[in-house]
Amino acid sequence: MRDPFESPFPSDSARHEIWEMLVPRDIDAFLTADWSMVENDFVEEGFIGIDGRKETNPAKWRLAFPTLKAYRDEWLRQAQDFAGQSFAEDPRTAIFTTTTLEDIEIEGDMALVRKKFDGGITKSDGTRDILQWQTLYYCRLHEGRWKISGFTGYLPNPMG
User: How far is C-alpha 43 from the chain's CA centre?
Assistant: First the structure.
């Protein structure tokens, strides 16, 4: 069984760097609603974010984040909303356990990264928030390190 807190790429420096950026750093920043922890993980120029709206039909996807600022504002809104909720379990452990990132395709200085969420988190009132979607991240080697240049996210998991 995989350890959700350990990179599946310990001996591959590029993939390990991407995993560190998109799993522990992203989760920890989200849980503290601290954008400053991840702001340097993005290429601002030309950034694009597509909201798949958990739809399998691309005709229903939307250009929700035409700029990094638009994405940052929504990310902060979601993180602050999450921070205001009460959970019956450790949110960090629940999110790590739900998250899988084991597929990174690298060609030169570009990478296609598949991050999936499949699980949930129990709230204090006993209800369960289902975390079940996936995101395709477009990363590139920029200024000496891997950064996110865009994504197509909030896709169904599984797709079909």
Answer: 15
